[in-house]
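Let us practice reading a record.
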Amino acid sequence: MKIIQHPRMRDIVIGDEVYSYEHRLFARVEEVFPAAVCVKVAFLSFRQRVEMLIAPQLWRADDIENLSVCRYCGGREQLATTAQTGIPLRVCERCGMVPPEQYMHELGSRQ
């Protein structure tokens, strides 16, 4: 049986910033798998004393947005942060010159 890579995973590399829609968290990618990424998430533990712990988590490809590439063309050069939807998405300088209503394809949009 051949393992097929999820379409969202082809542009994700170790060190990229991703946003999880399910957890509503940002994290850096530690490892890439065909249909998920491994990230390390810090959290506070209040058991005996207050401690900050770091735990690895697997986030599914369907639940994440890669913030290290341009949302429209997938480029990694000259990115600027936009916050039109509340999630800080990145757009390259070239795509930023085009008015948003003229984008040919946006992830998750219906045509």
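A brief commentary: The chain is about 5% helix and 40% strand.
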